[in-house]
What we know:
Bound molecules: adenosine-5'-diphosphate, magnesium ion
CATH class of the largest domain: Mainly Alpha
Order of helices and strands: EEEHEEEEHEHHHHHEHHEEHHEHEEE
Amino acid sequence: MIREVRLHHFRCFETLDFFPTPHRTCIVGQNAQGKTSILEAVCVLLRLQSPRTSTTTELIKSGSDGFSIEGHFGDTRLQYRHTAEGRAISLDSKLQQKSTDYLSTARITWFSNADLDLVKGSGSARRRYLDFLGTQSVPGYRKALRDYERALRSRNALLKDGRPRREIAAFDPPLLEAGDFLLSARADLTSSLSPRAASACLEISSSSDDLKIAYRPGCEMPFSQALAASRPEEERLRQTLCGPHRDDLDFQLNALKASSFASEGQQRTIALALKIAQARHIEAMHSHPPLLLLDDIFGELDTARRNRLLAALPQGAQTLITTTFLDWARDAEEMTVFNLSGKTLTPGSSK
Ligand SMILES: Nc1ncnc2c1ncn2[C@@H]1O[C@H](COP(=O)(O)OP(=O)(O)O)[C@@H](O)[C@H]1O
Ligand SMILES: [Mg+2]
């Protein structure tokens, strides 16, 4: 459970102290007050990555030369400092050279309106979804992802420059090793997610929509064979053409491709179901639900769907919610409310 978060020079905040409660905490504020930034800070603190950018410098308050986030998760004190010299992370004031122990502290599921991209957007959104889960629930996933990306970058740079085959081939073994790991881990994750997303979809929609998720690997045969077979073509196009960087997920609703045939409302339901599936997968793997961060998603949902969503979230999960208005909470369970205005948080009336 996250008990305390302190931001310094993060996004629009000079400093901010936030004390979430064990169950549901809601931050209410107008647009551009910094609601998303607070949830983002919690995600950066616990998972060392932002759900909305991969450029860490964007997180630094403009005009400053670094930011820091500190917090207590359970009895563990976490600190993340980012300066021009780089990143420093510590656990209970002990500097960590590696992120493995640090990242084992807490797990997160992030909900936002951008989740619609999972259904409507490009494959990269769906790969990020799998990776965010994989790095939290599969030992070795994060390392394999790093190794794969490194080998792919080097290989593509050589292909682009038209370098000789033996130089390119030097990166084949690391690419294949990390790639095979990712292909098999993502296939397993999809098998776990598909039934969970199907039942979440039924729980939050009023119809009997049947959701199926299929994993579409970025190579059609064993990776090593596919890579060998693609040689002439990759030399012509000067990039690596097959592998997990081309992976995708296929969503079928009632046996029709969701991105083409599902209504806007159904697509939103699928996106929510995918995130609930992620939370339930984490809960099953760790016998404890993840911390749930719900960024401004209630405005888009009608009352019935809002209540069904709240009921479908893992019970007992600590949940941080942001919203611009509180009307929807009238029938919702008890929660602690903070108002965010002028970059300061003040306790609101709990309900
Ligand atoms: N690095 C930054 N430095 C200063 N201000 C920033 C930075 N990044 C974002 N902002 C500003 O922070 C404000 C709050 O953003 P956000 O957290 O998205 O608000 P909300 O979710 O409440 O609408 C916005 O006005 C945005 O322009
Ligand atoms: Mg926002």
